[in-house]
Amino acid sequence: xxxFRTYRTDQKTRDQYAEISxxxxxxxxxxxxxxxxxxxxxxISMPGVFRFSIxxxxxxxxxxxxxxxxxxxxxxxxxxxQKDEKGTLAYAPDSLVCRAVSAIKQHYPKVVVFTDVCLCxxxxxxxxxxxxxxxxxxxxxxxLLAEMAYQHALAGADFVAPSAMMDGQVEAIKEKLxxxxxxxxILAYSAKYASAFYGPFRDAAASSPxxxxxxxxxxxxxxxxxxxxxxxxxxEEGADWTMVKPALPYLDIIAKASNRxxxxxxxxxxxxxxxxxxxxxxxxxxxxxxxxxxxxLIAIKRAGANYIITYYAKEYAKQWNEQTx
Length: 325
Fold this sequence. Notes:
Number of helices: 11
Radius of gyration: 20 Å
Strand order of the largest sheet: 1-4-5-8-9-10-11-12
CATH superfamily: Aldolase class I
Oligomer: single chain
Structural class: alpha/beta
Strand content: 15-25%
């Protein structure tokens, strides 16, 4: 009889045999940025997460830097009246995200800045690309995504992260950046599933589709091989890092991707619904929040993710610092 219980007899022994550990270096912290000043608006469906104006954003980034978090992902949130059919504000040289990137780089040059590249937060119809009738026009969207990424790169973004799930988006962006001799890297939202777990994010970013849904371009969650094929295609087009999104319900895809593409850093996004679900359960007293979010993050890393985009990054970092000091 093999004795396994000797591996678990006390905390010191369990720590000795633990195979997976987390570090603040594993995290990318997402931010929602709005125009204006002195704005720090908590998102009702995502307790502890805020929309920040740039001045308040800089203060908050100072706090996470002090905790050891050095990577952020930016989403611009604009008012409904500022949106149009073509998402013009998304790729303007003085866009909200461009100004936020410039400000961050001025105050915190060592922070690695990722920017989301998608039109859905900027179009009046709420879809990720231009429309032809009520259908998203893949190819006419590509130049606009490339221009958006280009403007973010000029502002100082370290990574641009195309999330529109348009075929050829990585190649279009790569060519645009290369032609301008820009060294900005690409984090591709390669395996992005059409998921119900995005609900709170759409509230936070005011990006719900005005009609229909995004199932015609985001991936069907009943598939496996398509995700791996999408990742392979993005790598061939020039992606530097790739992503699986969401995280916890897609651990099998993360594991398969990390095994098949070990030479490319793999990111996963613990999305808004995952975060809000844990928050709600904890608020009702159904779960121990600290233990549950820690376990969920360990599971994601155990599956093979190199980096995790998570709204829990700040809370984990605070605990980690308390334990190590």
